[in-house]
Specification:
109 residues, mainly alpha, globular
Length: 109
């Protein structure tokens, strides 16, 4: 199937239709043009997560994390995959790399 248009819009449409294999194939085509395309790598990981290919999810997330060690999207997908594989010791290491959010709570004065 040929997909025309903005890659983000194409992926969103395929995601809403739960077409995981098509997302994988479409993103693989994107990687042929640019092997470091973060959108393609991250969405392949997401599609693989949906079909239970957890070891592959980790591999794609690790590729992203080599380029950006604190990529929140890749870290979270990797954590989900590790959780399904019951690799709890590795989950903690990933959680420690997640960026800390500053609290927006008002301090009592």
């Amino acid at each position: 199937m040929s997909h025309l248009g903005n890659p983000i819009d194409v992926i969103k449409k395929l995601y809403s239709e739960q077409k995981w294999h098509e997302i994988f194939t479409y993103c693989q085509t994107m990687l042929e043009s640019d092997p470091k395309d973060l959108v393609a790598l991250q969405n392949i990981a997401t599609a693989l997560l949906q079909v239970g290919k957890y070891d592959d999810v980790i591999s794609y997330c690790d590729t992203v994390l080599q380029m950006n060690p604190i990529d929140e999207y890749a870290l979270k997908n990797k954590i989900f995959a590790l959780e399904r594989l019951k690799k709890h010791d590795q989950i903690i290491l990933c959680c420690d790399k997640l960026p800390r959010k500053k609290s927006t709570r008002l301090l009592d004065t």
